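cron nightly-structures :: item 1 of 1
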Amino acid sequence: MIQEPTVVNVPEYQIYPAHWIHLPHEMREHLAKVFDVKCSGPTEIVDNKIISDGRMPADLKSITKEKMQEYLLGSKEEDFMSLWEITLSKARGELHPPQLIATPTPKPVEKAVESVDIPKKEVNGFRPQTAKEKEVMAILDKPKNANDKSTKKK
């Protein structure tokens, strides 16, 4: 005789107070507001350590897979724990949005050298100098010091 397998009613995943209490206070308050998590128990503090913020397992059942999918703008993710991690990430971003750092706009780089039109016509492998080239050469040929005789013509 073959027995039918027994169907065990496995409860949906949920967030428990032990996980909840490890979240930063501002994160818990933000998520409590987003998911309408009530606070039906007392706050417990032992040796300056928060043991419970008053949210009981029944209160935390309001954080469901469906509500997280809605909070994540219609996410198709089905895994409860993946949704929870994505939810925490989004909440962190809402609490601490990234700050944009203004950077100064770089100034345009000025050209160091002006463009010079170079004549194409060459005579015996040499081309005539342009006016700009003559001007530059005149500056370069001048002696730096009036007493400097090395660059003076004899």
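cron nightly-structures :: done
The mean pLDDT is 81.
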